[in-house]
User: What shape does this take?
Amino acid sequence: MELAGTATLAAFAIQLTGVDWLILLIYLGFVVGLGFYLKKFTHTDEDFFLAGRRNSAWVAGVAFMSANMGAMEVIGYTGTAVKYGIQCAHFYLISAVPAMVVLGVVMMPFYYSGRIKSIPGYLKERFDEKTRVFNAAVFSIMMVLVSGISLYLLALLMQAFLGWNWHLSVWVGAGLVALYVSLAGLMSAIFTEVIQFFLIWAGILILPILGLVEVGGPAEVWHRLQQVALAQGHAANYYTSIWATTTDPGLNPMQVTWMSLLLGIGFAIGFGYWTTDFLIIQRAFSAKDVRSARLTPIIGSYFKILLGTVVICSGLVAFLLMNQPDSGFHLLSKPDGSADYDSAMPLLMARYFPPGLMGLGVTALVAMLMAGQAGNMSAFTAVWTYDLYHSVINRNASQAQLVRVGRLATVAGLGLAVLGAYAARKMPTAIDYLQAIASMILAPGVAVILPGMFIRRMTPTGAFWGLVVGCASSFGMFLLQQLQIVDMGYFSPVKGVGFMAANFWRAVWAWLISFGVAMIVSVFTKPKSNEELKGLVWGMTRLSKGERVPWFKTPEFWGAVTMILFVVLNVALW
Amino acid sequence: MSEQRKDSAHQMRPIWFFVGELLIIIGLIVALTGLWELHSPPAHKPVLWELHTGIWWGLVIVFFGGVLFFANRKARV
Assistant: This one.
């Protein structure tokens, strides 16, 4: 989007009053206090790594969404809405809802079982030990890297908007998360995620309401977006349509086509993230029974749609204010002079929030950081302890040893994340691409796991080489583009696509290569016996879907309702 | 699972109780600050100041927190 103007970082800092600090300190004290309270209830490894498997569908569903509501998700996507307009809705609809419903309705009965405690754990049961260890190692590295980068970015945010010291923000943020996650593991991570979830909503839900009041309501927003598009020489629906303008990448601000949306974020990236990323699925594993576990992502899908509404409305309001010269609203600029789209949400807070409410807004920002960090660390800790330590290093470890290793892994993981934050500070351009790499890693995972649930003939050796070659090829494609050996559109069947579409197409190719290699190698290698695949592959045995309940309480019913909502929203925004 | 763990597990308060408690405290602070600012407005008034967002949004948070707190104050999981 065209910029009406920007201001420098130095010219802006949110001033916190005493009451704002009080709210922030109450929140931090509450979270640490909860960690100590929950430690009393953490005795076994299942308590520490799976929160005792006693959570209701609502607790698990809220934690599931909270783990997805990190600072970069909320602040970053508000900036994406400023940049790409209503097309940002794809990240909340096609990229999320179908995958969440498939996870709950189809895949969860395979995942949720007494003998499976992580996604690599499923890979061991379905395939073999080497597939599990490879997936666990790649996932652990990814978690630590993502954690380090998000720590770096949050400290940068605190420095820019609140004037806080960068080093202090990194160490205090990591220290607090290390403290409460190491006390009670996933149990304290989930409890604080639920608290953070409500605080984040309390802090951000009011933003689009005030923004719409200032701009004049939803109809006025629509009208003015069309006027801006026409004034810039585009079609009227340039910023207000999510599908009609995707026949040609030149017709929409994201520079994508409908095919890259469907196959890229709809399938390879969306399914990769929502159905194989243990960071979020671990929350469903904490549910008390299989029906609650199946409902977890479906409850999450409703909140995902609501979050999209808040984020996109806020982004559109910021965009319109930027294009209204008398509004006095300007995005901040980066050191290279380009617009810092991520500044949109904090700037809207500074515009509308009085003292007190500002404290709540800043607390919501801090809660987003901690939710993301705790999510990364509890997932890393479980995978490291179960799938690497217990599986490779010490097969005879006792429950007490596993909990101790889990606590140490939490502290060590956050220590590595702090180092990662310092490394990112030295090479800031690398961070622009890390999220893209992370999503590329997930695409090979879904290429093996999802078909592996239905195709009995897929062999352990096939799955292993599918994963290895898939990950290597996605990195290879990324490097070829970054080193400018090939251009951004090289892997796309349509020319003229942008950076975003290049990400989507790499994910599609990574999926196809992984799946292709897995199937070709499977033809020449030995599959597992039918007996070994019971409960792991569709049709091999009758899966438990939980106790019999009335139809309106079933995951199938609520999954169908969210899919109807998904279709209605796509048609309404067509 | 040991008997000791069963006993202590049954004494745990549900998460909704803690969420309610925190929302009541924070909502009250936000609403009371909003009321105080009616009496002595801040030097730099935010946009839409005339809506007194802090007061009513703080009360919405208190109400929501109150529902969670009172519905779960005796519950144990």
